[in-house]
Specification:
The structure is a homodimer of 358-residue chains. The first copy, chain A, is of the alpha/beta class and 358 residues long. Chain A is built from 14 helices and ten strands. Chain A folds into two domains: 170 residues, Rossmann fold (3-Layer(aba) Sandwich), CATH 3.40.50.1970; 171 residues, Dehydroquinate synthase-like - alpha domain (Dehydroquinate synthase-like, alpha domain), CATH 1.20.1090.10. In chain A, the strands form two sheets. The first copy, chain A, has a six-stranded parallel sheet with strand order 2-10-7-5-3-4, with helices on one face. Chain A has a three-stranded mixed sheet with strand order 6-9-8. In chain A, helix 2 links the parallel strand 3 and strand 4. In chain A, helix 5 runs parallel beside helix 7. The N and C termini of chain A lie far apart (39 Å). At the A-B interface, strand 1, strand 2, helix 6 and helix 7 of A face strand 1, strand 2, helix 6 and helix 7 of B. Strand 1 of chain A pairs antiparallel with strand 2 of chain B, so a sheet runs across the interface.
Chain lengths: 358, 358
């Protein structure tokens, strides 16, 4: 059985297309008391960009703290707060930011229409009801959250996505102008999430011709950008947004692999951000992705990036064990990497050895 | 202003995924008297494949004659016939076949909800009302009709698509097993529609980074298939379906060019099929696409394809003039090829010279 995949409904793409957001949301503001819930990356607080967000009188705008990875308890708190402010549901939940903010938007919109805590729905196809309309607007590129069918959340017991046909956003705005101000090295780390997706997707048992095609083009764009000496030219900024979109889409037709499985474990204990965490992990995965890791190191060299060292140096043996526990729950990723016999290959000792190097 | 593009709603992809069609349509059969309108390429008449189509008692199945390119009068006739058979509208119009059958499905579903002849709607954004649900299932690959936002029809005065956000299908089934029986040279001609799309999209003023990325990967897949000596291996059949999908999608972010503009004119008078017509035209367009035409000739050589010669040999000067008239109406294509000053370059004499060589 194949999944009958739901795609993003509409895509507005073009430089400065963000200026059309008011028109896009206007189509949804049908009732007099319609309102939009905007979630905006804290990075923009106090910046001129805030004035460009088309906030109407009844709308709610929340600045999102992204110091930590998205949490189920924050999702639940925002839904409860908005419900306390209005008897109606928003006509769209708009996420303006990176993967964290977009994942918050995708999760929050689902929790307006599904009962209980969002932690109850971490997994595949657990959501019961269609959420409210959701608009995602990336302002940093690489995660693929703008197109993916998952919203990755850290809950009380696990870091795992709410994944399924209800999760993809309804509206995507791709405006290359929005990522021009992203500081380094965040931009590099987030972009490498895309690069790593492509390497993971292409090397495994669950790959498909569709996934390979989308991922191969995304990979070529990553190379164009990061093996050049001009990764921040306007055309390379635009290529990065497209690479992220195609890389995210390719995962719909394949699967992430060893880096994401270990990175999720590492993040659960250390709280390390997804982009940089992936880089720390991927840097040690020559065994799984020899060519990819070699090229990744070249991209770091060309772009003068030094990733954090000794991330696990101060972790206790119990903390390392907890990382391994989380990593081993990600069965579908390991099946993709190693096939059905993955447990013979991915031992606790192997994972411990890798984690100790990070 | 950028278009807020509507995408295909759902995609079912995988070898033998066609066998899940009954489940897919089952979700739409909500009322007791719900019915589906199937449009099936005449190629399948009397073949075993017909038994695999999940036709329910109230459904209507029509065999579609594709001897000629899709016509507005046929669209209108089928809509009138179905309306005379049932007081309700179908829950989905399902097109099973090539570009012609899929374009019929996409047009017919619109004409259930828009008044008058379909010829009134040939153009951009002329459709007023959302059509009924539409499912497209390619059984020959290359046209991109499975994903495009246009349905190309020949009307009493012009060959032009009904184009806009209402046109894309709602459901796409990509089953690589379905194209294994397509005879040559039809398969080659139709595949070249995809190859030509990619060359046209990449060479012009309206190209975008997104269109380039999708088209570049589609082009690479075409090369994998047609510069190999094994274009009909299972993996190449699957690559061809993906190439067609990505090539069609790339046009949404770019535009076709000189080949399609001239081919539309040629077809209006001679009735030549779109795939073979494109090949006949493209073969003479070194001036516009030197590298592409060279590679196209190499693909013909590798695959032992000989395209028709002397297609315009018996045409009268008046007929050639009519071809030129039609070709010159396709302003947006020529603007893409030559820019705003296109009329200085694309003269009637130049077009006549090209047409006489075909």
């Amino acid at each position: 059985m194949f999944r009958n995949l739901k795609a993003i409904g509409r895509i507005l793409y073009g430089r400065n297309s963000f200026d059309q957001l008011d028109d896009v949301l206007g189509e949804l503001r049908i009732e007099k008391d319609s309102y939009v819930l905007f979630l905006v990356d804290e990075y923009f607080e106090g910046k001129d960009f805030m004035k460009r967000i088309p906030v109407h009188p009844h709308d709610i705008l929340k600045i999102i703290d992204i110091t930590e990875e998205p949490k189920t308890k924050t999702v639940d708190a925002i839904v409860a707060e908005v419900k306390s402010l209005s008897a109606n549901l928003p006509v769209s939940v708009v996420g303006i930011g990176g993967g964290s903010v977009m994942d918050y938007a995708k999760a929050i919109r689902l929790m307006f229409t599904n009962e209980g805590s969002s932690s109850l729905y971490q997994g595949l196809d657990l959501i019961k009801n269609k959420g409210v309309h959701c608009t995602v607007i990336p302002t940093i590129s690489g995660t693929g959250a703008e197109v993916s069918m998952t919203t990755v959340l850290t809950g009380p017991v696990k870091k795992l996505g709410i994944k399924g046909n209800f999760t993809p956003a309804d509206q995507l705005v791709i405006d290359p102008e929005l990522i021009t101000s992203v500081p380094e090295p965040q931009r590099f780390y987030t972009a490498m999430d895309c690069y790593i997706h492509n390497i993971e997707a292409a090397n495994g048992f669950r790959k498909t011709v569709m996934g390979d095609a989308l991922g191969a083009e995304s990979l070529r764009l990553c190379r164009d950008i990061y093996l050049s000496n001009d990764s921040r030219s306007p055309v390379n900024e635009e290529k990065l947004m497209i690479a992220s979109y195609l890389g995210g889409l390719s995962l719909t037709y394949s699967e992430v692999g060893a880096c994401h499985a270990i990175s999720y474990g590492l993040a659960t204990v250390t709280g390390i951000h997804h982009g940089v965490g992936n880089c720390v992990v991927f840097n040690q995965l020559e065994e799984f992705y020899p060519e990819g890791v070699k090229e990744f190191k070249e991209m770091m060299r060309v772009n003068n990036i030094a990733i954090p060292q000794g991330v696990t140096a101060n972790c206790s043996p119990e903390e390392i064990d907890k990382m391994i526990d989380v990593t081993l729950t990600l069965v579908f990723m390991w099946q993709h990497v190693c096939g059905p016999e993955w447990e013979k290959i991915i031992t606790r000792d192997k994972l411990r050895g890798l984690l100790m190097k990070m």
